[in-house]
Amino acid sequence: MRANILKRKLALRVKRKRRIRADISGTEVRPRISLFKSNRYLYAQAIDDATGVTLASVDGKKLGFNASKASAAEVAKAFAETLKAKNLTQVVYDRNGYLYHGVVAAFADGLRANGIVL
Asked: Fold for domain 2-113?
């Protein structure tokens, strides 16, 4: 029973992810911020989809932060500094199929609070 529920949840997230990615794309000037959330950590990348290159990334595990709302704001702050160092202030936010609440929303708010335009 449990395996069926997990498969269904993953299938629904992948379906949302494909629907979102059909609409958004990143460029060199305005990259796509792709967020990945595991049960323990957060990871994010700034991607130029035109060339398929990762411009910047942040790893919550290496920074010592877990996947909580407070930690998401700190990871977003570190990522915003990395983006500003590369002169990237406007981005497109890809929530990667996750629902926009909790950690995902806290990460986006943290980026906005540190001067990144979503």
From this structure: Nucleotidyltransferase; domain 5 (3.30.420)
